[in-house]
Design brief:
Helix content: over 70%
CATH architecture: Orthogonal Bundle
Number of domains: 1
CATH class: Mainly Alpha
Strand order of the largest sheet: 1-2
Strand content: under 5%
Shape: globular
Largest sheet: 2 strands, antiparallel
Amino acid sequence: MLDRILSHDLPRSRALAVALVLVVALLAIEPFLFPGAKALNVAAKMLVFVLLVASYDLLLGYTGIVSFAHTMFFGIGAYGVAIACSRAAGDEGVAWGAVLAGLAVALVLSLALSLVIGLFSLRVKAIFYAMITLAVAAAFQTLASQLSELTGGEDGLSFKTPAWLSPSFEPFDEPVFGLLIDGKVIAYYGLFVAVVLAFLALLRIVNSPFGRVLQAIRENDFRAEAIGYRTVVYRTLSNVLAALFATLAGALLALWLRYTGPETTLGFEVMLDVLLIVVIGGMGTMYGAVIGTVLFVFAQNYLQDALKWFGGEGGLVAGVPLLGPLVSPDRWLLWLGVGFVLCVYYFPSGVVGRLRARVASNESA
């Protein structure tokens, strides 16, 4: 049964299987285990980025396409929901119809843009395609910043969500297992279910005959073309599917934050984070999106807190010459970079790739 749910793509590593089960279990019970606002926001960001990174891995890891426009589709999903909700907001909140309408318009727009970009740009060489997508993404970010009447400009858009997702909504008078259920908890579990279903759909896609063709194109596009596959068509379809899943991720993030802005979804820093996570987790492995996202987002949010314990005021090594300033909380970006370099050095094929390669070498020996 589990084999079918995972589209016959089992972890193939006991350590990886344990890590995945642990991650899913912790995310599933996170509101009950760590009920604080920060912990809940970090878990929600992990879920959104799992979907966003997995959709990008469909392009980079499985098809071999380097695109810098992926966050553009992420932003389209967020802005689609935000604009629809802000326009349809009333005294009693927002109807679900507005959310679905905004998502539908965003999906259609992403489909059209990804189709045009794919048809006109995927015929050129990889480096030129990457530059084209970078230019398109930069233009879209500028457009979102300047159309202030529609998008809120640099300040972005804050909006109301349906009543069930509002923090003030409390369906139960008494706590459930020690947790008072409110709209934020309901929104988290809605996000959790949506991401799990979308991730399983992506697993099905990459393990289907269509996904096998994408991998053949990644390995040798000339050979794939020679045996009868129209590589431009397959690459374009891969581009479209990745864009649609990224749009869904953006819509989910907007609903969670009840806000969207240029830096939240369209900033180049978001694109860099996605690239780093793909490399850390392992390209061409959907499970790499899960492991890489959890490691990166956790370090991004809690590394500074850990350094405060070591080198902050009253920390363990706060008064030690050289060492104290080196592990100061202000140096957290330095240590994040060091961690990334070490991860790439010791796991050149990503964490998941390394774990699977170790199992394969043990079986062959």
